[in-house]
Automatic annotation (TrEMBL), chains A, B, C, D:
The keyword Transferase does not apply. Keywords: Isomerase, Manganese, Metal-binding. Residues 96-287 form the Xylose isomerase-like TIM barrel domain. This is Xylose isomerase. Pfam families: AP_endonuc_2. NCBIfam families: L_rham_iso_rhiz. Gene3D superfamilies: Divalent-metal-dependent TIM barrel enzymes. GO terms for molecular function: isomerase activity; metal ion binding.
Amino acid sequence: MINKDAVEQSNDAARAQLAADYDALGGHLERRGIDIDAVKAKVATYGVAVPSWGVGTGGTRFARFPGPGEPRDIFDKLDDCGVIQQLTNATPSVSLHIPWDAQPAADLIAKAEEVGLRFDAMNSNTFQDQPDQAHSYKFGSLSHVDAATRQQAVDHNIACIELGEQIGSKALTIWVGDGSNFPGQTNFTRQFERYLDAAREVYGALPADWTLLTEHKMYEPAFYSTVVQDWGTNLLIAQQLGDKAKCLVDLGHHAPNVNIEMIVARLTQFGKLGGFHFNDSKYGDDDLDTGSIDPYRLFLVFNELVESAERPDFDPMHMLDQSHNVTDPIESLMTSAMEVQRAYAQALLVDRTALKGFQEDNDALMATTTLKQGFRTDVEPILAMARLEAGCAIDPIAAYRAAGYRAKVAAERPALSGAGGGIV
Amino acid sequence: MINKDAVEQSNDAARAQLAADYDALGGHLERRGIDIDAVKAKVATYGVAVPSWGVGTGGTRFARFPGPGEPRDIFDKLDDCGVIQQLTNATPSVSLHIPWDAQPAADLIAKAEEVGLRFDAMNSNTFQDQPDQAHSYKFGSLSHVDAATRQQAVDHNIACIELGEQIGSKALTIWVGDGSNFPGQTNFTRQFERYLDAAREVYGALPADWTLLTEHKMYEPAFYSTVVQDWGTNLLIAQQLGDKAKCLVDLGHHAPNVNIEMIVARLTQFGKLGGFHFNDSKYGDDDLDTGSIDPYRLFLVFNELVESAERPDFDPMHMLDQSHNVTDPIESLMTSAMEVQRAYAQALLVDRTALKGFQEDNDALMATTTLKQGFRTDVEPILAMARLEAGCAIDPIAAYRAAGYRAKVAAERPALSGAGGGIV
Amino acid sequence: MINKDAVEQSNDAARAQLAADYDALGGHLERRGIDIDAVKAKVATYGVAVPSWGVGTGGTRFARFPGPGEPRDIFDKLDDCGVIQQLTNATPSVSLHIPWDAQPAADLIAKAEEVGLRFDAMNSNTFQDQPDQAHSYKFGSLSHVDAATRQQAVDHNIACIELGEQIGSKALTIWVGDGSNFPGQTNFTRQFERYLDAAREVYGALPADWTLLTEHKMYEPAFYSTVVQDWGTNLLIAQQLGDKAKCLVDLGHHAPNVNIEMIVARLTQFGKLGGFHFNDSKYGDDDLDTGSIDPYRLFLVFNELVESAERPDFDPMHMLDQSHNVTDPIESLMTSAMEVQRAYAQALLVDRTALKGFQEDNDALMATTTLKQGFRTDVEPILAMARLEAGCAIDPIAAYRAAGYRAKVAAERPALSGAGGGIV
Amino acid sequence: MINKDAVEQSNDAARAQLAADYDALGGHLERRGIDIDAVKAKVATYGVAVPSWGVGTGGTRFARFPGPGEPRDIFDKLDDCGVIQQLTNATPSVSLHIPWDAQPAADLIAKAEEVGLRFDAMNSNTFQDQPDQAHSYKFGSLSHVDAATRQQAVDHNIACIELGEQIGSKALTIWVGDGSNFPGQTNFTRQFERYLDAAREVYGALPADWTLLTEHKMYEPAFYSTVVQDWGTNLLIAQQLGDKAKCLVDLGHHAPNVNIEMIVARLTQFGKLGGFHFNDSKYGDDDLDTGSIDPYRLFLVFNELVESAERPDFDPMHMLDQSHNVTDPIESLMTSAMEVQRAYAQALLVDRTALKGFQEDNDALMATTTLKQGFRTDVEPILAMARLEAGCAIDPIAAYRAAGYRAKVAAERPALSGAGGGIV
């Protein structure tokens, strides 16, 4: 973890400036009729889960370029995740990917306690073959034509639930790459029937207080069709399985130009919004840092969430899901968690009474201006003050760099070589 | 209508060549184990509805360039549609758009009988304001914030049903342009609630043997959000309304890259595929001639339809919906109807037993090759022979041109001027 | 024009709050080492041209819903444009569209002086047919297969230059809709050769101090191919014609997902960036209000412009080009002009020395954070103070509404009826 | 290689049917005024290069699922490529990727002679790090900020030329993944200047009779910007470097909806079309089998090539570039090579005199119908007869399977395990 003195030192350099900025913003918000401290209080309790796999360097099918100090296992990963939470207070939980992170529950719990984290949703993996696996997922998993392969995938998902139960998780997220690369390769209907049958088995093994999150994705790794290709199919799954089944929305898994915030609204309206994988993208499932490409889109998603906050039983799960190919993953995750907080804070600033009035008057210009006023506000002082008051860093990147954490773990963790080969 | 002698004369010029081509193809198909006459028989009974508005020249917001002999009213339009059916035998029915085509039922019936046509689905219009209209649809129709405007839209749809009942239609198609141009302009959820309430009223007025078809579209005329933006929302509507409510798929109304044939499969699987608007597109809702841009995509849609042909209660409606900006609309509609027939005939040729086997073996290459063998076959002789045997034209375009129909109606129908102004 | 007292009254209500906000922001920027007054000074001299056609209500091929007080001619339009400049000081010039705005030069000049405006680039129109036109543009204009049609289009462009010279314009913008709707309809190469030949004729008529701006667009009104479909073809045109020929970038004229700011950089690097049509879009050429959908993209474009500001002979023209379908066009144009100013002000705040350093260190995270810090800053007080000091409105929308301008012109200008017909 | 008897046996089973089909098609074409033997003769001399890396199973960042008998090195790969050519006569040459295929020239030449192949363009690789590499390409290669890294990339390209010269290649293809993942990460202009400087060095090392092919790609592996992002930038490169520099078009490297055949026409018109990487795609750079998704698009590209065939100095290089994730790569490459031949044969059938006439008459409908008549024709008998007459297989897939080649090499080449890990 990061040395507390390093954090303090970093904060000392910025404390006075933050106080001035916070006061200035507070004054401005007061003139808009908003209590800055109330906003700060909400931000302070907001958290987004970190994916365990996110602290390793990502890559593409062409290559992966590891950085120094790559985590060797889930325990190293939890160390890294602990740093993110220590400096930002924005990421209180970690989401595990099985079998990558499969370890004895007691060890996982102990390590999580040590680094001050909880466990978020469990993630199963039936898009890769493991060395000792009986049946290959080359042609699918839950929707495979072969019953034994489907059963293997079902069993793996149930094993994920079982481990999750031991470590305090309350949800299983299923993403499958099943689909096809050629017209005619699969029969769409029979494939989806098989998927539903298998998913029902997994659903049947779900504890009463768990949620099953299914995730849609337009394409990749399948390049002609994907069995859960969009929110329409995802909704059908959740409807077919039952009340504990809900839809997970990954911001990068849609067709070009799609209005994602509207999908969020629809799923919310029908009680089927289960959670998010936050990231950003320009082209496909680019898995870029949240808010790095289109921050207004992120804000518009949070606008829907704040709008629906008072709905009964509305409590979608929030997780980052990114691939950090050219940055220090810890830095990207800290920045992204803060971007999520930023969008949330901005959405909290929207004058919803005024907005509703403009909507009812068909005053499109003032409605959109009202929304944008929230987005336009620089809420950084609110986020920074919430961090400072939680004992974290005003400027987490600066503190992290000053503390030399990366160099320290690089010295402990062997450099990866030959990992840059890629798959073309 | 077209002079029968002109058709005969045109056919005489091509008859021998067709016979030779038909025999050659018959021999080839026999070697593949397919009876050409059986395919021809199926094609001969296939029909796609023509949209009444399709026989006028279309345009864009920038301009419209009318051609000679533009139809002046629904009776002129029915004349033109009659020609299409006379020459192709592929378009036995016409779909009306109200109020554009609103005329006394008896007159419509009489004219339809005269030109040998039936009436397909009725189409309502709440995306434009009519001169004498009490409430404007500028900010929406069925989903408008104002109850009186919604009621006006509901009443209009019910009036469409009533006229439809008198003329033998069995379906109402609703497409609304409702949506928004700015983030925040509308509340997605409340807007959709209003839409559903209004649609329920229309549904309530539906005769027992009618179908309500709702049509989704990603964008245009609304450019930020559209209330029925995709098949997911369309499915929710059909689910909420009841068994007589189904989804209409327009091939040009989807996001870029979307797998449309898969949407067709999903809606079919859950009993909600109601019908099609056929056309083709490269960029957006281009409304180009069916099969003119991506004929394989059209074939893949028909592959799904043939695959599902034996499902109980599976009988989606087929209609062309195109904008003919640079061609003679009659020629485009004849060609497009034949393209739809072509895709159907090609899909009939697929060896489905072999295909299923390859799918079960995960033999992607042979599965896709099997599918493509159907597409690759030049079925023109089958279509032409079916036309000839029905007393139509072997080459409808040649016959139409030879008959001089366009010149004749141009002499009767005044040229439109000043219609090219456009809306920028 | 707007009554000055109304503006004063509106300003009085906001003056104290603005002073406080400006001071607060000034303090914050000072802590970042930035002099707020220097930024304000730059913003105060920045202007974007208004399109004359933008003050009328726009529409789609489906319908147009006019608002009250639609301008009847260019003189009404100049009145409306004068209001925009009076309240914002951000739009000192107007761009005319010929023949829509063709009037005697003396009258145009007199009216422009009256309302305090200059004339920006001239726009020709060969995408519509005019009532008295010898040759139709249905199948193209500058690239038409028929020489006489091409000559007519050339002559029209030269006439635009001649009128422009008389009223002080220094540029001609050519956008043509030429293309095709079907594969095979045109020969791409011969069509482009014809375009180049015709464009050379227009270029030959260009005064020495004029610029010829050609505009690319992916599609619409042509839906299979467009002769100037992208910046690559646009660049070829500018290269072929000569030094006075440059490329105009409309933000809405690109393929989905395209990195527009990079195109701006490439054209700049090779001396061929001629100007902009600012607007925003989510799907196609939606012509939505600038900055309303993706404000960060607008900022990234301005980041390129500020980055290149010191290049010799770098002076692209800036114009809004939007379609206002659901808002008061004056309000949309004021808001959009301010959004352009906002992006400019934000780009001025970027610490370019730090940015360059991070780029050279491959410190992607700090580079993007540095850029975003500029974007994140709420520069509204700078824009508002610049307006106030220029005698304009702190809140132009509020002032405009308070002044009752729309109601006043609605009383003078007859309501349009029957204009909502649309082209489907 | 494949046992000749197995091929003969396979051919015997199909010979009579082919003769009948060929005669039937010949008769049909004769009725259209086309000499089938002349078309066959052209097809018989047509060839497309095979990529050495294409005979291994591809994958995605998520996983790779190897098949049996994966080639271990370039010699195994050449064996596999030899089989493709032996059975199809459509792939007379192989394109090497360095350093993957770097071996002594004499050994390469000997092996190529053994399997009856020539060497097509050389491909350099600066998108991955090799184990012994001094400088990493994590942040770019030819455009890297660091001069030593750029030099390393330049030197590697020159080494590729040197090896290529020894083995009879006449072209170097450069594709770099250089770009950025974050706005601000790179300065677009300086990055492109560096690219051009480095490319000039490579160009300087080019033998007089060589061509330098540069390849553009919209995105992946870089997800915000790519230095050679589109044909516009690619054209600038070719213009800056000189006459021996031309543009390579990979069908999968464009923005959604882009009209690729038009890009082909533009590059041809300005003498800069250097060659192709054929494949197909639905979403991004999916690298699917050529013609498997949109065969009409492939035909439209070949329509341009046949249209330009008489241009002086027009001789673009043709290569397949695909990723075979779920099929036997040899089968996919054989099928794809035949699809390229098919598109070529179909384009040869177009009545170009008629087409030109319709274009000049603005007869869009007949122009597109004329084009499509070529596409619609089932030319399989022509391709098969050309193969048979060249001593190859009427049905290469059937012959290949019957010969048991895959099982044979699977027995010789060790199964890959642990290769399915993927990069997420």
